[in-house]
Design brief:
Helix content: over 70%
Oligomer: single chain
Number of domains: 1
Largest sheet: none
Shape: elongated
Number of strands: 0
């Protein structure tokens, strides 16, 4: 079935984009840790690059949804099956490859969530510090 190759290619692309997103979040974290004028100068750019990767992920997600639905129909599955359900219905070697994609996604998504949460906390702390600094001089 040709649909497996297309779905797998899209999944590889999404994994690559998640890896790029993790890299961009790490860059943002380093800038937040550094502080100072240099960091402030590049923080907006880093955040913009994160937004661009997230948009690419959204587009890849839409493409994957279309391909997965087509493959699901071929396999007799309901539309929008999970990756686990797709792997379970897939013949070898696609079953193992889809299961590997699923495991990789779980790890990457966990890392991205942790990095994003850490950056969010750092941004909140920086905002509080700036507010205290600005308001402290007026009191």
């Amino acid at each position: 079935m040709a649909g497996f190759a297309e779905v797998s290619d899209i999944l590889w692309r999404e994994r690559e984009l998640l890896d790029v997103l993790l890299f961009k979040l790490d860059q943002e974290r380093l800038l937040l840790s550094e502080g100072g004028e240099h960091a402030v100068r590049w923080l907006a750019r880093a955040s913009h690059e994160i937004d661009l990767v997230v948009e690419e992920l959204r587009l890849a997600d839409l493409t994957r949804a279309v391909e997965v639905d087509a493959l699901a129909a071929e396999l007799g599955l309901a539309p929008a099956p999970t990756l686990a359900a797709l792997a379970e219905a897939a013949p070898p070697p696609w079953d193992d490859l889809l299961a590997a994609h699923r495991a990789a996604f779980e790890a990457l998504v966990s890392q991205v969530r942790a990095a994003a949460d850490d950056n969010r906390h750092r941004l909140e702390a920086a905002a509080v510090e700036l507010e205290q600094s600005l308001l402290g001089s007026d009191r």
